[in-house]
Amino acid sequence: MAAKVELEIAPEKVAHVIIKAREFDAKVGAWDASPEDGDAEEDPSAILEDLSNDPTAAEIAGFIDALNDDEQVHLVALAWVGRGTFEAEEFGEAVETARNEQAGSTAAYLLGQPLLADYLEEGLEKLGYSANDVESDVL
Predict the structure, then answer these.
(1) Where are the beta strands (DSSP E) in 1-139?
(2) 86: Cβ–Cβ under 8 A, 6 or more apart, which residues?
(3) 18 burial via Cβ count (<10 Å: 0-12, 13-18, 19+)
(4) pLDDT band for position 131 (50/70/90)?
(5) pLDDT at residue 98 above 50?
């Protein structure tokens, strides 16, 4: 494992985003006519439906929006390292690029990444953190 890179965001916060992003990614297109038709008590598989009133996206966006600027920048840089845009040795450059290119909602940008959870997990690993250990601390 590589030497740990100092993050301006607690690895446990990253793990929380990973867990919630996995929940968000597991959603599928709605197959019922309305949110009321997708009652999980009557149809347990309905919990995976991506309905307009689904709180998962709002919950993760609220969590990301509540992070301070440094935490948001490091979260974006971590995702970029995980997806291979930057190497682990270039993390400082990734942070500066994320800071300079920050415009609009960080949550909206990150939730637009279809493999966000995988990118963050891979980014943690590349920077010397055990994603499994960090996630198990959160669960």
Answers:
(1) 28-29, 49-50
(2) 77, 80, 93, 94, 97
(3) buried
(4) confident
(5) yes
Unique residue bearing structure tokens 């990253």: 14
Q: Would you state the pLDDT for residue 115? A: 93
Do the beta carbons of residue 60 and residue 22 sit within 8 Å? Answer: no
Tens of pLDDT, residues 106-118:
999 999 898 999 9
Say which amino acid occupies 8: E
Three-state SS for 43-83 is CHHHHHEECCCCHHHHHHHHHHHHCCHHHHHHHHHHHHHHH
- Domain extent listing, the chain: 17-24+54-138
